[in-house]
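thought: fold this chain, then report.
action: predict
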Amino acid sequence: MPGTIFRRATEFDFDTIVFNNIELVRETEGIDLDKSIVIKGAKSALCDSNKGFYLIAEVDDQPAGQLMITREWSDWRYKTFRWIQSLPEYRRSGIFSGLY
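observation:
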């Protein structure tokens, strides 16, 4: 998608991450999350990269989607896996492919 950039999230993306997390779960699961818990979780992840990290997509300087990447150690495979925890908002636009 022209005008799209992909970058690692910073503390300046906090409000966007919280909003997107709440809306994603509302859309996909039909659940209204407790915003105070989402705030704590997003803040914790942004402050401690061992918990994971967020990637942000922007189209024309506006947030267009995000992914959260977490790590999981597999003892029976003897390696670390990365898991995609959140998906972007824009559907069929190439945002997910770019973030991935």
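thought: worth noting. The CA atoms of residues 76 and 82 lie 16 Å apart.
final: tokens above.
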